[in-house]
Each structure stands twice: as C-alpha cells, then as structure tokens.
Amino acid sequence: MTSVQVDKEHDGSEAAGQAPEEGYQRGLGNRQIQMIAIGGAIGTGLFLGAGKAIEKAGPSIIVAYAIVGLVIFFIMRALGELLLYRPVSGSFAEYGREFLGPFIGFVTGWTYWLFWVVTGITEVTAAATYVQYWNNHIPQWAAALVFTVALFGINLISVKIFGELEFWFSMVKVTAIIGMILIGLGVITLGFSDAGDTASFSLLWSDGGFFPRGIGGTLMTLQIVMFAFLAVELVGVTAGEATNPKKVLPKAINTVPWRIGLFYIGALIIILSVVSWTNFHEGVSPFVAAFQKIGLPAGAGIVNFVVLTAALSSANSGMYSTGRMLRDLALNGQGPKFFTRLSKNGLPTWGTGVSVAMMLAGVWINYQWPGEAFNYVVSFATISGMWAWIVILLSQLRYRAKANRGLLPQSEFRAPGSPYTSVFALAFIAMVIVMMGVDPTARISLYAAPVWAIILAVGYLSIKRRNEAALSAPAGAATGASAKAGETPGKTGKDDGAQR
C-alpha cells in the first residue's frame, strides 16, 4: 500500500492503531516481537565493541550508556506514536514520505536498505571468522556462503520461521548476559573463583576514579555507544506483519528502559566490578576478559558462540528488513516495480533475493580486498543508521503538530514529554555527529555520506523525470475517489500485477 493511499479521509477504516492491508501475512506474535525488540538492542556492539569504549572512558562508560539509553527510549516512543497512528511495514520511510515529503521517504528507504546490506555483509563475514575459533581449516568464504544461503532459505519460507529464529537467537544473547550477571554477582558477594580476592564494586572508582579519562573521554565514547544501539528501531519494520500491532508494539517499546538497564548498564557494572577497567582493550570482548579472570575454562568458547549468534541474528534481520524496504519503495514508485511482488506466503522474495545477492558480492569483495576501500563502505552503516532515527523524530514532531490541530487522529500511544523529548534527542544526535567529525577514528563514517546523497539525488531526479506524478504529490495528499479507490496518482490500478 502506498503512502498516498492512506488518507481515506480517516473515516474509521484505518483508525489509529489499525494497520492498512499491505498483502503481508501477520505471522509475528507477541513472544517473537518482544524478542526481536530485545535482540535489536543487544549485538556485537556490546559483546565486542564495549571493550574499546571502556578503554577510552573507564567506568564512566556506564553513564554514557545510561544517557544514550534514555535518548534511545525517546526515539522508540516517538516511533511508537507513529506506529499506533498507522502501523505499516515501510515504517519510518513511510512516515518520512508522509510528513517530510517524497524525497525524504526516498532517501530514508534506500539509505536504510543500504545500511542493512552493508551490515549483512559485515555480520556474515564476522560469523565466518568466529567459526574458525573451533576449526580454522574451514575457509572463511565457505562458512560465509553457507550462512548466507541458510538464512536466505529461512527468509523464503515464512515470516513465522524468521520470527522463531530471531526468538532463539535473542534467547541465546539474553541467557548469556543474565548468566554473566549472576556469576559475577556470586564472585563479588561470595568471593569464589580466581577473581574472588579482588572483585569488588569499589573497582568502579578505585583505579583512577570513576572518570579516569575525564569528562571529555566519556563524551568521545558517545558515538561508540550510539552505534551499539543501531537496529533497535527494527521493531518498527515488523509492524506490517505483527498479529496485533495495537497491543504488541507498545509492549515491546515500553520494555526498552529495563532492557538497556539490565543488559547494558547491569552487565557493565558487574563486569567492571569483577575486572578492573584497565584490563580492557579494543578488539577484546569484555565478556571474554571477565570469564578468563573468573577462571572458567569454557568461558571463551561460550562467548564466541554468543557472538556468533549475535552476528547471525543481525544478518537475519538485515535480510528481513531489506526486502520490506525495497517493496515499500517500489509501491511508491521509487523503485523497480518487480520488487512489489509477493510470494504465495506473502514474502517480498524479489527484494530479499536482490539484497542477498549484494551481500554475497560483498562477502567476496571482503575476502579478496579487505583493505581501506571496504572499510569506508562499512563505516557508512553507522551514519545511515542514525539517519533513520532523525527521520523518526522529525516525522513524529510533524505528526503531533497535525494531530494537535485536528488534521489527523491522535495516536493511542503518545510519546511522553513530546515535543521536548524529541527535540532533545535530535540535538543529542547532532552533537554525536559533530563529535564524529572531531574524532579521527570516527570521521571516516562521514566521508561517504555526501557521495551517497549525490547518488540518491541523481536517482530521485531521474525517477521524477520519468514519473513525476508518483513523486511530486506529498504523502497523504490524495483525496476523494482516487484515494478511496486505492489508486496512486500517476499509476493505474493494474500497474504491475503484484499481489497486494
């Protein structure tokens, strides 16, 4: 369903919280959506990336995760308000198109698609390297190929299978973190294991203080922490396939604070109380270091398995998301028409297949030329992920303004403190982007953005020249008979024969 088909004068057929029909099968239940939301907030950014952040900030990294966690909650509540107004699979690309204009929707859809393609490339390649921990005779390219084909096959069966796989991937990550917290608490309070003599909550401030690198050191880790939360917004893409979005989505979003509190802040407090922050370094998992200090011989293998599942979970989510984004773009005249087609199981097979083909090409490129050129592409994923957050916040502000004027129905899940919370989150993201430009190691993420913007501008103008009506009308502008008939301006009702 295109964004210009949704107006229907809001006569009750598509009231807030009731999703329009998009052709997808609503096969994701509460249990699966909840775990997808949890899994989106827990990834390699915690299991591996936290080591670099701890080295730069010391124990004060806990404060950084708490502040960023609050901002993430503001973003998710803004997304939740939009989802209950109109839960669609295109999610923030659809909202950007409706409230910020067709060009923003175009940029958001293609940028988020590229984000997941690049993320899929890196995660599948990472998973292949993790396998070598157990058997280094398996070629990296072979493991990457097997993982990619297997995940693609799962995404072709049904959305229920995807949701079930994500459920168990997330369960592994959650179990590992809870296990680490319980073991760490036992070491600190009961004093058993090799770390029992030195483990103490006083380690949070005894080695150089709570801010050993100063406030500046803590601020410079904010971009690292932000990157760790990329993909938390994935729950919005599942809206079009949730069995009961009006009930399920608010529950998933409202769990964000305790997920961040337990899995990030709680885990880091325990780890930094078991092992002094001076023992953590970039490229070394804090979980591995903690298990080694405790003296568990199987600890490294356990963490390697958890990180493997985290990488596969991210790649699986990427395949799911890319197909939906490409179909949403195609339905709005902003992508090739064949992406609109659905399989008999209601899956966007063409969009997913093309995305997976690019992921396979990326794995081959990474194997052949693992140099700086590939690193430039990979680093772009971070800034593109934050673009989605910016669009969510701006769209929510525009929606709230219209709803307050009575031009649109009020959402049943309003963001608390808005518009102030949304403005604060936008200002925070802007500050992080500025800091990325200051930090030489993070600045690389900004170099590719202008190039990608030029490519998108050229593509948009090219499409507009061929089909100006499809792109020139603001989202939601259709009224009267054409909107009620479900027609998109510039198209006929039989444009591509796709299943809708």
UniProtKB/TrEMBL annotation:
Bias-annotated ranges (Low complexity): 473-486
InterPro entries xrefs: AA-permease/SLC12A_dom, Amino_acid_permease_CS
Keywords: Amino-acid transport, Cell membrane, Membrane, Transmembrane, Transmembrane helix, Transport
Region (Disordered): 1-21, 473-500
Protein's UniProt keywords contain Cell membrane: yes
PROSITE patterns with a match to the protein in the record: AMINO_ACID_PERMEASE_1 (PS00218)
Extent of Basic and acidic residues compositional bias: 1-13
Subcellular location: Cell membrane
Domain (Amino acid permease/ SLC12A): residue spans on this chain: 33-467
TM regions (residue ranges): 35-54, 60-79, 99-121, 141-162, 174-193, 213-235, 256-274, 294-315, 347-367, 373-397, 418-438, 444-463
Tagged with keyword Cell membrane: yes
One Pfam family named in its UniProt record: AA_permease
Main location: membrane
Membrane disposition: Multi-pass membrane protein
Domain of life the protein comes from: Bacteria
Similarity remark: Belongs to the amino acid-polyamine-organocation (APC) superfamily. Amino acid transporter (AAT) (TC 2.A.3.1) family.
Protein name: Amino acid permease
Lineage: Bacteria, Bacillati, Actinomycetota, Actinomycetes, Kitasatosporales
